[in-house]
Specification:
Elements lengths: L2 H21 L18 E5 L8 E5 L3 E4 L6 E7 L5 E5 L7 E5 L4 E5 L5 E5 L1
Length: 121
């Protein structure tokens, strides 16, 4: 019976591959690192996508903040602590908020329609 050894080898290779994937040994690329330049305790907006252009806006204090001259795609990173949130709002006084960034989250967002942000616990 030649099938049994082949099946055993295939099963062994599959088990090894699953184990390696579970430990990250075969992952194709490393986990995406947080954008650099945003201090701990702040929420930051970068000058362009993929954290390009450096940090242009930093928000430290609680409340509604007007958002000026942010057109096109920018990286937004909530590097606040203690589970504080950072919200992007279409209204100029913190109304009609579409995006909520929880502690440690970031993504590229078209900021053109947004006119204010909220920093909140």
């Amino acid at each position: 019976m030649t099938r049994t050894p082949i099946r055993r080898r295939v099963a062994a290779v599959a088990a090894t591959a699953l184990l390696a994937l579970g430990t990250g040994a075969l992952s194709a690329s490393p986990a995406s690192a947080a954008p650099a330049g945003c201090p701990s305790g702040a929420a930051c907006i970068y000058g362009g996508p993929n954290s390009s252009g450096g940090v242009t806006n930093q928000y430290w204090s609680r409340g509604v903040h007007k958002l000026y001259n942010q057109v096109g795609v920018h990286t937004v990173f909530n590097n606040q602590t203690d589970d504080w949130k950072f919200l992007l709002c279409r209204g100029s006084n913190g109304e009609d908020c579409d995006w909520t960034f929880y502690e440690g989250s970031w993504t590229d967002v078209d900021l053109t329609p947004f006119n204010s942000v909220i920093v909140t616990p």
